[in-house]
Amino acid sequence: MKVAVLGAAGGIGQALALLLKNQLPSGSELSLYDIAPVTPGVAGDLRHSPGAVK
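User: That's the sequence. What structure does it adopt?
Assistant: Structure tokens below.
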């Protein structure tokens, strides 16, 4: 399953991305998009949480 979070750098987008990473089935792909330049930081934060999502 492929899922994209648009607006991932916002408060709701960050929480949604974390929730999705923990709830998506193993092998799913989670993509983060935002116009703000801090999106790589959000992805870095998600790497610290357990989950088998790419």
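The beta strands are 2-6, 29-33.
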